[in-house]
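haha ok so turns out i had the wrong file open the whole time. this is the CORRECT one, sorry everyone. sequence first:
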Amino acid sequence: MKADNIATRIKEISDTLPCGVTLIAVSKYHPAEAIMQAYEAGQREFGESKAQDLVKKYESLPNDIKWHFIGHLQSNKIKYIAPFIHLIHSIDSYRLLQEVNRHGAKHNRKIACLLQIHIAQEETKFGFTPEECMKMLCDGEWRTLENVEIRGLMCMASNTEDNAQVAKEFSKVQKLFKNIKENFFADNENFNIMSAGMSDDYPIAIKYGSTHVRVGSSIFNG
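then structure:
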């Protein structure tokens, strides 16, 4: 894709986002050259889903890029991204949170994380159910983890053309976010991220409180 096309798509999408909503350009499957074209257009936040690919891009691209890990994270891959990752969107178990904490301690940094919530109809998607997430937070052991910081929630809606279903799912996560904020993070201003919405449904997600949208195909394949 030509650089001017990527720049145009980034501007078109950015112009649709309300103030305070962050665009994450999902660069998985795309080469460093395409990422540089987006970077030169002013984009600084990118999302990847494979640790090894992310490391290669991190090492070859400008160091002011904020890298987001948005795919299913295996515990044995954390070590590769722990030194530099900006935000992990896909924490789907307490055990995984513990492992991120362990690697954060090794690098003397606190790693920002989101709890992934499973709301979609597809069973192939990962994440806590809302009930599992509340139980983990109520148990309270997460408070002992000094090298992770829970910054909010992430979700993916069902892959469907039924916008009413998508809206219902995003609404459910918005209510869960507010409940968790009030009960566990009322005094923590850093619990403020709801990562929801991709190329096909991000306008709906924004209506239900999304602060970070993950857009790939509309930028790189448009």
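The chain has a mean pLDDT of 96.
again sry for the mixup
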